[in-house]
Amino acid sequence: MPIITAVASALDYSHHRGLLHRDVKPANILLAEPDGQAPRVFLADFGIARPIEDATRLTATDMMVGTAAYAAPEQLKGASVDGCADQYALACTAFQLLTGMPPYAGSNSAVVITKHLSAPSPSIGAYHPLLAGLDPVFAKALAKDPSHRFSSCGEFAEHLGRQLGPGLSSAVAIPFPDTQPEIDVTAPARTAPARPTGRAVRRHPGFLIGAVASIVLLVAGGIFAIVKLTRHHQTAGAPHSASTPTNPAPAAANTGPFTGVYRVQFGPVTKLAEAPAPGAMQSTDTYAIRSMCGSAGCVATATRLSGEVRLAPSTVFDEVGGRWVAVTIGSAKCRDSASRMWEVFTLQPGPNGTFTGEYRGAASNSCAEKRTVTFTRTGDVDVNSLPDPAALPARVVSPAEALHGRYHITRNFSTTMPQQQQDETVTTDCLRSGDQCMSYFYSPTSDTPLVFSDGNWILDLEHEENVPGCISLYVKTTGQYPLPQPMQDPITRLTGHGRHQQSGSCAVSVDFDETLTRTGD
């Protein structure tokens, strides 16, 4: 929050002086901590800045200004813009700082621009359940109509900080990555999936730690302005380091069945249809976990502290049927494009305070991986540093969870193309809110991911393909599968309708009907 608050203050400062930035994004926010001085935040690259009354003009080469992933709808359309456009970009930047990816991500700029212009504001709570309270704030700051946004960047930052709160802010603080973890799978649905590679991991300095004491705006040709910022609870002349209390409060007891600091060891990566790979654990992370049990069951909040596997910074575990289950949406690369990654832990309690089980990662563009995982308790945790699990709403069971087991899939095309048939196993994982699920169908030779929301499963695959005899082949397959009525568990038959498109020398565009018939557990 200190970074967003500081940048918001700087933008308001420039707006009051008639200047728009027009390209606010994470890459233009620089941090420095000179020896013996307070930390500073630099808002750089005013190279495309213009006076507000001249802000609708394009660049000298008549190119759209700003970066598509962070640009406001009115800016993308070349309409009149004001400080609300910078506020929109700041909201996109804040969204990425908290989730690891911008609100509208994709490798195709045209698709990203279309989402900015017409798609609803995404839910940050879908990425991290603990951040669901921020959804109304982002919905307002990312409104398509500038008049529906906050009156200033500072007001946006104020509402964001108020909803985030100091305890939650520290729990979700994550390093600012210059690369995303990567899962590299090249096979589409109905074709043999390649083995995913390991995640690309780098160590990065933490960016969301510490108080921001000043902010500097950099402009081509020199410094535009310096705005001093201080934390409200500090007094003039106060030392930079916090003093040690004379009588520190005793640490809260580590109660609950899944509480403490845990070393998390991940096994080698395998495909979903394969048995766990033999060999030693390959990667290690550290998690802080706080749990409690009540009349509705047991729940635990968890924060990733460090390690090599860059998963979501926070998650929530629920005890379901004797297992601890956590489902979170993080971010990773799938087919060289930033994607929402469904991250799932399924753990069984073991001896000596250990929990063993499985981690699965899956994206809607047919990328997936599986690892064995072991949680080993290494010590106590400061439970007051973690969100209170007792304050969380109860887990909601989604009707999509009835889609499980083995299915025979039949796809009939509207032309004379031959019928396709395939046998696959499906695993359905749902957010604890119950409103979104990933139903991932897989076999040794194929993958079919379906994302459930608003009573429908959605198929949405889009990728390049290498097929002998086809040049510049690009494949897009979409489909919709309504939830069967009346409800049943397990779902014995699921039907849907879709469209398959190919471009290049093997171009085709054809509708299809698909039936998925359950054949067993």
Automatic annotation (TrEMBL):
The lineage of its organism: Bacteria, Bacillati, Actinomycetota, Actinomycetes, Mycobacteriales. Keywords: ATP-binding, Kinase, Membrane, Nucleotide-binding, Serine/threonine-protein kinase, Transferase, Transmembrane, Transmembrane helix. GO terms for molecular function: ATP binding; protein serine/threonine kinase activity. Pfam families: Pkinase. Residues 1-162 form the Protein kinase domain. Its EC number is 2.7.11.1. One of its GO terms (biological process) is regulation of primary metabolic process. This is non-specific serine/threonine protein kinase. The chain crosses the membrane at residues 207-227. Signal peptide: none annotated. InterPro entries: Kinase-like_dom_sf, Prot_kinase_dom, Ser/Thr_kinase_AS. It is an enzyme of class 2 (transferase). Coiled coil: none annotated. PANTHER family: MITOGEN-ACTIVATED PROTEIN KINASE KINASE KINASE 20-RELATED, SERINE_THREONINE-PROTEIN KINASE NEKL-3. It comes from the Bacteria.
